[in-house]
Design goal:
Helices cover 17% and strands 34% of the residues. With 176 residues, the chain is an alpha+beta fold.
Length: 176
């Protein structure tokens, strides 16, 4: 099976296929409504699927795409990340930072983005998470701070005692 470079696919493409046309066998990107040859003739396309009557009757139909390979679903953090995935890694509980997966199987080969070196180990020694967005990181930090505050406030007799405990724990209101 041909290895498809999905980084070169248009955003709208959900698949890659082979199609017979008057130009011979063509490689095409496609989705449910349209297709475009990889070697687009003069930069034209995408073309809506055609057939029948009307302005697009000479365009290919979806049924003319004989071999089809669909874009892989994005890795959402379940199981081992596929080759090419950029994610966060931990080796035996120790943070490794952001890595790119170079080989995924019984053994993992990873490229450490920050340290610029390869590392490998048995896959059971690693855990992986998708890279968190700044919003997700801020939400996690907020959640941790709220839990700390709740622990400090537990057992307070009244609002004033609660405020005193928070102040003594160095929580301060930040004004913009």
């Amino acid at each position: 099976m041909k290895e498809i470079d999905w980084s070169k696919a248009p955003e709208w493409a959900t698949g890659y296929g082979l199609m017979s046309s008057s130009f011979g066998i063509e490689e095409v990107w496609f989705n449910d409504e349209q297709y475009r040859p990889l070697q687009s003739r003069g930069g034209y396309g995408p073309y809506p699927f055609g057939g029948g009557v009307g302005p697009h009757m000479h365009n290919a139909t979806k049924g003319q795409i004989s071999f089809q390979q669909h874009r892989p679903a994005p890795w959402m953090g379940e199981g081992l990340p596929p080759v090419g995935t950029v994610c966060e890694a931990w080796h035996n509980g120790c943070a490794q930072g952001v890595v790119q997966v170079r080989y995924s199987g019984g053994c993992m080969v990873l490229w450490n983005v920050k340290l610029k070196h390869e590392q490998c180990s048995a896959s059971e020694n690693y855990t992986f998470k998708p890279i968190r967005t700044p919003e997700q990181i801020a939400a996690e930090e907020r959640g941790k701070a709220i839990k700390q505050m709740a622990e400090i406030m537990s057992g307070a007799d009244d609002d004033l005692d609660c405020a005193r405990r928070l102040y003594d724990a160095n929580f301060r209101k930040v004004t913009p």
